Amino acid sequence: MKDIFDECRFRDLTLKSRIVRTGLWESQKEMGNLSPEIFLRYERLAKNHVGLIVTELISLYAHDRFSDYSHSINNPKFIKEFKYLAEITHENDVPIFAQLGFVNCNVNGKQNVDVNDLTLEDIRQIQSDYIVAAKKISFAGFDGIQIAMGNNYYFSKLIDLKENRRHDDYGGNTFKRLKMILEIIKVIKDTTDLHINCRVNASDDVLEIAKLLEKYGADSLQITKPSSPQYFRKDSKDKNILFEITDEIAGSVNIPVILGGGLSDINSINDLINSTAIEFVSMQRPFVFNPTFLSEWKNGSEVESLCRTCNNCYWKKTSTCHIIAEEE
Ligand code: SF4
């Protein structure tokens, strides 16, 4: 019988629980630097039974649409500050991954380049920028990197059949649409010890994408909501289709697969991990509402997270709960 709080292997890492805290936005910075509030937040997460922490988004490019709400890999204090962040989680035996991605592609003096307009020079520049960023993350002592290729991030467009209409080596079949990312993974694997997690959308061809990512070096996957709501229709058994897709992938690859959200009570999660091939579940908003709720579960509480999923923290792009703030 599996349990949320099993100590378990996650490829090369040992986790204290099956819960992954996934990050989204973080705007509580001071002049672009991590504030004491952020360090405290990570300390509280790490001390309260989370298995793995994935940071909020670290933006690859300046002037990205969301750069005000994300960390920047190009901040001069990046290594110093993120090294301290990694030390905080490691002191509590919790591994930490850096979520790295971008929305707007600003390369070679150009702004907001569409995936179909990328030149070979642009592709090499993106790959080089990504690999340099991964080396910084490795130097800061992180255990892994999460390649943001789901949701609406740029890489999700690159691999999407409808968005990518290229006719060269980086467009066409699924392998070619993934090729830029597979080449990045190879170099990161060859030059760092980072665990590579890929966060991908539950799209029509996600099973093929998952198998290719595994074959070319990804160490784990996180399956997340695609931008189109069509994948969230309910089936006849009234189960969320994301669970089914993630279950199918987890049963088809030999690397850990994380369910990207959708559950916030202990009994449902324990039921899921005992009735499907899914062994890891990520959460974001419940941790925003209360970073210590896992300790309550560990101590026997079965109370569902009190987060109202109002999404204010998402729309306002902070890691703080606006409901709690209004009530105080
Ligand atoms: S702002 Fe809303 S969604 Fe975010 S943590 Fe608070 S209750 Fe949950």
From TrEMBL:
Name of a matching Pfam family: Oxidored_FMN
Keyword set includes Glycoprotein: no
Swiss-Prot/TrEMBL keywords: Flavoprotein, Oxidoreductase
Record keyword Flavoprotein present: yes
Gene3D superfamilies: Aldolase class I
NADH:flavin oxidoreductase/NADH oxidase N-terminal domain ranges (all copies): 4-301
Any one GO molecular function term: FMN binding
Domain of life: Archaea
PANTHER family: BINDING OXIDOREDUCTASE, PUTATIVE (AFU_ORTHOLOGUE AFUA_2G08260)-RELATED
Name used for this protein in its record: NADH-dependent flavin oxidoreductase
Originating organism: Methanobrevibacter millerae
Organismal lineage: Archaea, Methanobacteriati, Methanobacteriota, Methanomada group, Methanobacteria
